[in-house]
Design brief:
The protein has 365 residues and is mainly alpha-helical. 68% of the residues lie in helices and 0% in strands. The radius of gyration is 22 Å and the shape is globular.
């Protein structure tokens, strides 16, 4: 009986999937990628802030942003600025998002293969490509792809025995934190990994040096065109108070910022972004201390929303559907169809279940 090299078959299947998946992304971006500054929530804000900075011949944040509600994803906004300064367009940013997505799959495969094995890496890469949001997200322009690319690259480099790669890991963590204010979580996670595995203290130093160096460089760079030493977003207070008020529902609800509610700030007060952040945090913490049971009651609904609502898939699907009418997709099943959306969300519940099972198995081992 002929023996088959399943590892080689896995590679060919993965390569075929990657090529098809990549081509589909480029097609979606070409046909439906949005560069409209007037739509799409967060991506709209990123584009607007970048265009504003470029028009002023500077970077983000700058003096005109000092009294904004918050500093928003400065690393990603400056990435857009860089593309525009180099002669690219907002559409170029979306094509680069596709490139980031492809690199994520490759790094995910390498990282999983290094930690667990090639078979597990094949499964992880396939799952990533099968998730609807990972196919459609480049059409909109969120921060997640750049953040995930930097984060996974940092984790991969941190597992190396070469000191310079660990320094690079620290740098990548700082850059990820510049894009989204969660990057430093990876620094602590890697530190815990180092402690558990009792690695050489020089690795701690290399990781720390890389992180501190890039944070200082970002802060100094920002100080050139902004009053403060800033190296990350300041959205903590804004997000905290949305989940800590009398009208919170576990999801996004900006009613709290309207007049008569605890998050309202009279614009005549001319608060700076820092003062606003401090105010929101103070109000939110006071509310939590006075309503601890109510606050805890909404935690399950937050978990439910996390796995029942795919923000990137829904927004991308709405965009494609809006531009495709009266075309009917998938035999009269459009992207807005609840059946399609619920089917996609089942995938996330399955991943959660598999993650919990894997965690239990790892703990047992």
């Amino acid at each position: 009986m002929k023996k088959y090299d399943f590892q080689n078959i896995d590679r060919w299947i993965l390569l075929t999937m990657l090529v098809v998946w990549s081509v589909m992304q480029f097609i979606f971006v070409y046909a439906y990628g949005t560069t409209d500054v007037g739509v799409m929530g967060d991506p709209n804000a990123y584009r607007f802030l970048a265009l504003q900075a470029v028009e002023q011949g500077t970077w983000y944040p700058n003096l005109s942003n000092y009294h904004d509600n918050f500093i928003f994803a400065p690393g990603y906004v400056n990435f857009i600025c860089l593309v525009l300064y180099l002669g690219g367009s907002l559409k170029t940013v979306l094509y680069l998002q596709v490139l980031f997505n492809i690199l994520i799959v490759l790094i995910l495969y390498k990282l999983t293969s290094k930690v667990f094995g090639r078979h597990e890496a094949f499964i992880a890469a396939c799952i990533y490509m099968l998730l609807p949001s990972n196919l459609l997200s480049p059409t909109v322009g969120y921060t997640e792809l750049l953040f995930i690319l930097l984060s996974l690259s940092a984790i991969y480099c941190s597992l190396s025995e070469k000191k310079y790669l660990i320094v690079i890991a620290g740098i990548l963590i700082g850059l990820a934190n510049w894009v989204r204010p969660l990057g430093m979580v990876w620094l602590f996670a890697i530190m815990i990994y180092y402690i558990v595995n009792k690695v050489d203290y020089k690795k701690y130093m290399c990781l720390f040096v890389g992180s501190v160096a890039i944070v200082c460089l970002i802060g100094i760079f920002t100080k050139e065109h902004f009053p403060d030493f800033n190296y990350s977003s300041s959205t903590g207070g804004w997000n905290l108070i949305m989940g800590a008020n009398d009208d919170c529902d576990g999801g996004y609800n900006d009613l709290v910022f309207k007049e008569g509610y605890i998050g309202y700030i009279d614009e005549s007060a001319q608060y700076t972004y820092k003062q606003r952040d401090d105010f929101y945090k103070s109000q939110a913490i006071d509310w939590v201390l006075n309503n601890p049971i109510t606050y805890l009651k909404y935690l399950p609904s937050k978990v439910k929303l996390l796995f029942m609502f795919d923000n990137q898939y829904d927004m991308s699907g709405n965009l494609i559907e809006a531009q495709s009418r009266p075309i009917v997709l998938l035999s009269k099943v459009t992207f807005s169809n609840k059946l399609v959306r619920n089917g996609a969300n089942i995938l996330y519940w399955c991943i959660l279940l598999m993650s919990l099972i894997s965690l239990c198995l790892c703990m047992k081992d």
